[in-house]
Specification:
single chain, alpha/beta, Rossmann fold, about 50% helix
Length: about 200
């Protein structure tokens, strides 16, 4: 596991929590240093947003491009930061005020490439503006079914549409939400409180 945190006291505390839970932890203080690591050699990366030099989200984006899964760990839990983390490829988002049990649950889920967003991150979308607001009713139905794990053909049968129409809806949804693939779409939906895809 990689821990990318520039505050020494916080880093020591997080390493202690992770080590006590049986995780082997390597730590880095800058995203530039961490980006030099070869491939996604860690099961999960825990990344702070505010780091010396490049933003932690730059590392999240680069790490996601190599197939790595990240949890953003930050004091900033607002719509802009959470959405930007999702678009960068983060699988999870946890506030730095979270209890250790919440932090560990996030790490363990993301290590399995499953989404996890703390209650504060999800509340941002419930209390302010859901990222799904720009979608039409039909587009929301498509997102819901995709997040339940249905294939394009299964979604088409369920909604009485052609597979090509379903693909068009999905492409339009991803364009509106600023995501590039179904994994990103699922992360946005999870942050908005929709059910996560199984597995």
């Amino acid at each position: 596991m990689l821990l990318l945190e520039d505050h020494p006291i916080l880093a020591l505390g997080l390493k202690a929590v992770l080590s006590a839970a049986g995780h082997s932890v390597s730590a880095s203080r800058t995203s530039v240093e961490a980006a030099r690591l070869p491939g996604p050699s860690y099961d999960v990366a825990v990344v702070d947003i505010e780091l010396p030099g490049a933003s932690g989200l730059e590392f999240v984006r680069e790490y996601a491009s190599r197939g790595g899964a990240s949890v953003v760990f930050s004091f900033h839990v607002d719509g802009d930061h959470v959405r930007e983390a999702i678009r960068a490829g983060a699988f999870g988002y946890v506030c730095k005020t979270a209890e250790p049990e919440v932090f560990l649950e996030a790490v363990e889920r993301v290590a399995q490439h499953k989404s996890y967003f703390c209650e504060e991150a999800m509340a941002v979308f419930r209390d302010e503006t859901t990222p799904l607001k720009p979608l039409s009713a039909r587009e929301r139905e498509v997102v819901q079914l995709v997040c339940e794990g249905l294939t394009t053909k299964e979604v088409a049968v369920t909604l009485g549409l052609s597979p090509r129409t379903v693909e068009t809806h999905r492409e339009r949804v991803m364009s509106k939400l600023g995501v590039r693939n179904v994994a990103g779409l699922t992360r946005v939906a999870a942050a908005a409180g929709l059910p996560r895809r199984p597995g």
